[in-house]
């Protein structure tokens, strides 16, 4: 049964009410409230849960802050994630959560409305929908881990009712022929070779950063990628242009062909893009390094006779649905084929970029 005890100061003035719930088979639950009404409501809620057999202790969630949970998450959960960019990105998201006032709140007090308010703050800070959703995903996983593994069974994940920002459609930015020439002319030789390799292979930034000389098989015209975004190794065939680009690269070390991390590639790309006079930022006309992967994949559909499964094997896309948006690029080729054109030829009315 529940008991309610008035709390007074030295002058006998009421400063709060303590609620204490005792029930056989359950640990005693105690909490202090400003008013008796809140104390009674809390006790009745716990007793109802005990009656229905769904009670979960609230002690840990009522005394542990979000920030403390994130610190524990960094120590226990993040190290088990995929090494490299995955861990680095998660640490970056968590460091931003730790700087927000919400991190000072105890876990049990955080509601959906609080998360929605932070989401609005992120939008005002200029964060895009994808970045915001990644921040929210880390928060949601934290609540699930705390509920399942850290003795906070009573926690309600506030993310379950948050209306996440809608993702825009996939970027359709293509690289113009003049831009390719400008980039290659503005970049140093190693970076120009790196850009050419990305355009010929559709390799991701991190995959290029991790590329080693020993992974290059010139005899079989391929490179082996032991670590990829999807976690599966991949062998990428090399076109004549890709082979030419690699032949001009002097390996920086045994562990890195180009001697650049993913962030280092971004910095070199930014310098080359600026020198080439190509827009940066997040507008539709801005050119990102990842757009080279989109361009390379588009060219596989436009310029070759490779089927979608063969293209997927080269690009490493996780599923066929991610490649479905490229299939419309084959329409002109098919029309030319019906008119007697050669397989893999450049569509009628489209000039070669060479």
Automatic annotation (TrEMBL):
Q: Which UniProt keywords apply?
A: DNA integration, DNA recombination, DNA-binding
Q: Which GO terms describe its biological process?
A: DNA integration; DNA recombination
Residue ranges of the TM segments: none
**Pfam families for the chain:** Phage_integrase
Q: Could you confirm whether the keyword Transport appears in this record? A: no
Q: What CDD domains does the record point to?
A: INT_Rci_Hp1_C
**All residue ranges annotated as the Tyr recombinase domain in the record:** 166-339
Gene3D superfamilies for this protein = 1.10.150.130, Intergrase catalytic core
Q: Give the signal peptide as a residue range, or say none if absent.
A: none
**Recorded GO MF terms:** DNA binding
Please give the InterPro entries that the UniProt record associates with this protein: DNA_brk_join_enz (IPR011010), Integrase-like_cat_sf (IPR013762), Integrase_catalytic (IPR002104), Integrase_recombinase_N (IPR010998), Tyrosine_recombinase_XerCD (IPR050090)
Q: What is this protein called?
A: Tyr recombinase domain-containing protein
Origin species: Acidithiobacillus ferrivorans
């Amino acid at each position: 049964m529940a008991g309610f005890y008035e709390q007074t100061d030295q002058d006998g003035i009421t400063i709060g009410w303590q609620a204490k719930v005792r029930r056989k088979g359950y640990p005693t639950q105690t909490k202090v409230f400003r008013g008796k009404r809140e104390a009674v409501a809390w006790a009745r809620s716990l007793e109802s849960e005990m009656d229905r057999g769904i009670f979960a202790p609230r002690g840990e969630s009522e005394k542990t802050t979000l920030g403390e949970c994130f610190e524990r998450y960094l120590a226990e959960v993040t190290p088990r994630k995929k090494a490299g960019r995955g861990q680095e990105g998660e640490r970056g998201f968590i460091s931003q959560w730790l700087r927000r006032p919400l991190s000072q709140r105890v876990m049990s007090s955080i509601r959906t409305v609080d998360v929605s308010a932070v989401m609005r703050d992120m939008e005002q800070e200029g964060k895009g929908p994808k970045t915001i959703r990644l921040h929210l995903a880390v928060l949601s996983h934290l609540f699930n881990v705390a509920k399942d593994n850290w003795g906070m069974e009573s926690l309600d994940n506030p993310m379950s009712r948050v209306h996440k920002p809608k993702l825009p459609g996939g970027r359709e930015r293509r690289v113009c022929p003049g831009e390719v020439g400008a980039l290659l002319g503005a970049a140093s030789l190693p970076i120009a070779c790196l850009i050419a390799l990305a355009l010929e292979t559709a390799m991701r930034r991190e995959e290029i950063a991790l590329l080693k000389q020993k992974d290059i098989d010139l005899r079989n015209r391929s490179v082996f990628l032991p670590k990829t975004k999807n976690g599966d190794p991949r062998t990428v065939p090399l076109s004549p242009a890709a082979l030419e680009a690699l032949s001009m690269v002097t390996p920086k070390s045994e562990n890195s062909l180009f001697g650049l991390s993913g962030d280092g590639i971004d910095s070199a790309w930014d310098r080359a893009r600026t020198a080439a006079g190509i827009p940066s930022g997040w507008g539709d006309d801005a050119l990102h390094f990842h757009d080279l992967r989109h361009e390379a994949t588009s060219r596989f559909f436009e310029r070759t006779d490779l089927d979608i499964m063969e293209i997927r094997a080269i690009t490493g896309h996780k599923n066929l649905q991610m490649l479905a948006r490229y299939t419309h690029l084959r329409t002109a080729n098919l029309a030319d084929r019906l008119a007697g054109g050669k397989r893999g030829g450049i569509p009628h009315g489209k000039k070669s970029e060479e």
